[in-house]
Design brief:
Elements: E1 2-7, E2 13-16, E3 22-27, H1 32-41, H2 43-60, H3 62-65, E4 67-70, E5 73-81, E6 88-92, E7 95-100, H4 106-136, E8 142-146, E9 153-155, E10 160-164, H5 172-184, H6 193-202, H7 206-216
Helix pairs in contact: 4-5, 5-7
Amino acid sequence: MYQIIRQKRKTVSIHIDDNMNIIIKVPQYLKTSEVNRFIREHHSWIKKRVEQASQHKVENDWRLTGRVLYLGEYRVICRVTDPCNEGEIVLETDQLIIKAKDVEDQAEAERLIEQFFKRQAQIILTKLTDYYVGLLGVSYNKITIRKQKTRWGSCSSKGNISYNVKLLCAPDKMIAYVVLHEVMHLKHFNHGQVFWQEIRQIMPDYKERMNYFKQFGQDFML
């Protein structure tokens, strides 16, 4: 089943979401007959992408694998029934333990996992942000943690920094790059030569860290 979305754009794009829905974004002016023709012509390619996405989900979605990436390491998800517990996540070495009255309630398990990641992200990312803010002599307004598809972070002209909660799947060293990148925008609101020069002075291996997200970011599933 295809979901067609008309937008102010010049090209056609195909995206497969986490539920294996095929989303096709097309220019507003494109006729329905042309959209259908595009789908027919790319049917084999779309089918292959769906198969790849499905396989990737099987290999990386904690709901199916029973393990989740946290700070660069896989943690086995254990469920412990606790009649007196309203629901919490406990981190123990290589495990994330879900404690709740009904640990088989999948919706509740998902809520608790995401809540745990957001809470930890707020602590870890705020600490890192404050460090680099002090290093660069700048200031920010507020930090927001969101669950996003691909964007790891952003910084507005008002000094508001937003981070993707999925960053907590990456190792500390890689998370630090994203934080430095966004904090640097408080000083240089662009990606000009000076921006990258100052990034390099602080973090000489920034390119390696940046490429890490390009290579493994798709594995971060919450």
